[in-house]
Amino acid sequence: RAKALPFTAHCFYDPSMDAAAREKRSLAAALREALASGGGLMLHYQLQASVTAGEITGYEALLRWRHPTRGMIPPSVFIPLAEEMGLIPALGAWVLRRACTEAAAWPHPWRVAVNVSPLQLADASLPGLVAEVLAETGLAAERLEIELTETAIVEDQERALSILRAIKALGVRVALDDFGTGYSSLKTLRSFPFDKIKLDRFFMAEIESSAEAMAVIRSVLAEGVERPEQLAILRAEGCDEAQGFLLGRPSPAVSSGPEPEAAASAPRPPDAAPVSEA
Ligand code: C2E
Ligand code: MG
Ligand code: MG
Ligand code: MG
């Protein structure tokens, strides 16, 4: 076989691919090390609020990783890496345990939303892990919300559905994240027991101009609310729950501080809304 392919092997040699693979292995090794020591990993929290009541409903836990020499690595880089390198079970368990431990100390109505990778939803041990962490931390089940993306349910629908049902049977809430970015129809989604649909922030860009975008904003949580005008539309249309830089950025500590109240007051001039990621 090797004899038959002398120049294909030669043609496929690409030093930059080699470097990329080395880079990936080195990053994965550092992430594995962070997991083993707990160093460099932390959760930031971004508030979710009821825009009609102007009250905090909960916080989404967002994983952060500071590499020992390279500084902050974005989740868009290290989450896919963890998925590819088999680190998701350990990383996912770390996030769940940490988020539930911290949330157990928050004021009682506040929920914590935890992102779960599609790989975790394909693993039948997830409901057991969730039950174990709730028991361990004493967090009431209804204060935990699991966030899943559409990719988690398209692969093997039956399996995903049965794992979801087992999680819901514990009393945990389930939210569909980034709705509008995948290919699932609302009809498919209706057969899944979601408690909440999080409208992807790309919708926010269209909210002022599109009737379709308008039609789906009732009964969803709107992500990526950056401008007061967007918040005003959500409120007028009865879309009650929202998350975005206007209300608060992901931060290392939760607070009941002035951000949601400021956002819940009358729409402010656009220059009052910071929009770039810190
Ligand atoms: P996501 O779950 O959709 O989280 C929301 C993302 O949007 C966060 O990015 C947040 O910082 C950003 N965001 C929030 N409000 C605004 C806004 O008003 N404008 C803009 N432009 N962005 C906003 P982040 O923290 O970089 O996380 C990116 C993604 O990484 C998350 O998207 C989620 O899919 C994934 N991720 C983060 N933490 C975890 C985790 O613990 N486990 C897993 N499996 N995935 C995670
Ligand atoms: Mg999320
Ligand atoms: Mg999202
Ligand atoms: Mg997203």
Describe the structure.
Residues 247-278 are annotated as: Disordered. With 278 residues, this protein is of the alpha/beta class. The chain is 43% helix and 19% strand. Strands 1-2-4-5-6-7-8-9 form an eight-stranded mixed β-barrel. α4 (88-103) packs parallel to α6 (126-137) and α6 packs parallel to α8. The chain is globular, with a radius of gyration of 21 Å. One magnesium ion is lined by residues 177-178, 198, 223.
How would you describe this structure in keywords?
single chain, 278 residues, alpha/beta, eight-stranded mixed beta barrel, disordered C terminus, binds ligand C2E, binds magnesium ion, EAL domain-containing protein
Strand order of the largest sheet: 1-2-4-5-6-7-8-9
Q: Which regions have little confidence, pLDDT < 50, spanning 5+ residues?
A: 265-278
Gyration radius, in Å: 21 Å
Share in helix: 40-55%
Give the biggest sheet.
Answer: 8 strands, mixed, barrel
Structural class: alpha/beta
Number of strands: 9
Describe the global form: globular
Give the names of the bound compounds. ligand C2E, magnesium ion
Number of helices: 13
